[in-house]
Amino acid sequence: MSLDVRTITEDDLPGWVRARRTGYLQPPAVSGAELAFRRELMDFPRAQGAFDDGRCVATYRSFTQRLSVPGGASVTANAVSNVSVSATHRRRGLLSRMIDRDLREAAERGDAAATLIAAEYPIYGRFGFGPATRVTEWEVDVPRAGLDPRHAGPGDGGRVDFVDIADLREHGPALYERVRAARHGLVDRTDVWWRRNTGALPMDDAPWTEPFAVVYRPADGAGRIDGLLVFTADDRWEAKLPHQTATVLDLVAVSPAAERALWLFLLSVDWITRVRTSYRAPDDLLPDLLPDPRAARVVTDADLMWLRPLDVPALLRSRTYPVAGSLVLDVTDTADATGTAGPAAGRFLLEAGPDGASCTRTARPADLSLSAAALGSLFLGGESAVRLAALGRAAEERPGAADRADALLRTGRRPWCADIF
């Protein structure tokens, strides 16, 4: 029988969730709690499934997301998630059919870009996505780090306090939005995100265990919260000695002072001999906060969020640039298997500076030629045009164009996406 690729309804949800679990090699049984959780997440008109004789064999959904860009603004992105194809139905073009339709609809809506977290690296480049953020995870050997065991809290007069989960649910969203305005690459956290991560919306039938939550308040902030740390700790002893590992679930901070205070607090907690940091930006402050940075061992260094330009002028106008300058980009974009030109295709004149930018289509000769995927990698400032040119993924049409692109696009801090969505 032919495969039916279509928008799903609420009645399809149990079979869709089962297919997603099967595609992710998770036990296929679907609990009532997971169904309730998935129902909360779903924007059903943007959820698709492939059906073979009524059985769901592939899954796909997208949703509206706000992405922070350099300069503090946000753009509307089409976030792609829950992509799966059952092992019995691979190589039949199911992903292509679902993603082509979704990206076309996103471009028609006026979304500036599409984003996703790629489980496998080779899949999404052919759809115009490029890796736009990277993450690093460290494991810190606390006794080796060389920290003063008498550390008694922030040296700036601020304070660190434990809070309960109700405080986290109340104050976390506003704090995170302040952080998101200051750090490009972060995506918005919905009410569903906060309820899921504070135990109010279970993801499955497993009992939820409350983590530890800590906040930082600056000395001059009249009680204002400028940083948040959430972590768990195991309970491991050997020969009557503690060997506890603290695992960071979340650490966000408005200021470097707040970030330093929270790391130093966690590294000073009695009984903790090892800290796992979760996914941090590659240029996180942590390793070099330590007297011995070698005590922080890298355990993960990888791409995380991928970005696909949809509306190039809107995307490039949305951010600020560290210097003034202009650049003509010739962007190639093949939208689907038919070879039709995608929404990012064209030649664009970028005139930019610290106060903002204009970007329009142009007939001027190009300075730099590149694919939509390469532009996706460059946009947030974490990748180098010079490096992409050396890799053959961008081409200088005028000498020095890649250097000029880096002067315009690179940012002082690396973009960071803290969440898997």
Automatic annotation (TrEMBL):
Biological process according to GO: aminoglycoside antibiotic catabolic process
UniProt-recorded Gene Ontology molecular function terms: aminoglycoside N-acetyltransferase activity
Q: Which residues form a coiled coil?
A: none
Q: Which InterPro entries match?
A: Acetyltransf_17, Acetyltransferase_Eis, Acyl_CoA_acyltransferase, Eis_dom, GNAT_dom, NAcTrfase_Eis, SCP2_sterol-bd_dom_sf
Please name the catalytic residues of this protein. 124, 421
Keyword terms of this UniProt record: Acyltransferase, Transferase
Q: Which Pfam families match?
A: Acetyltransf_17, Acetyltransf_9, SCP2_2
Q: Where is the N-acetyltransferase domain?
A: 3-154
Query: Where acetyl-CoA is bound, by residue?
Result: 83-85, 91-96
**Self-association or partners: how does it assemble?**
Homohexamer; trimer of dimers.
Family as reported in the entry's similarity comment: Belongs to the acetyltransferase Eis family.
Q: What is this protein called?
A: GNAT family N-acetyltransferase
Annotated source species: Streptomyces klenkii
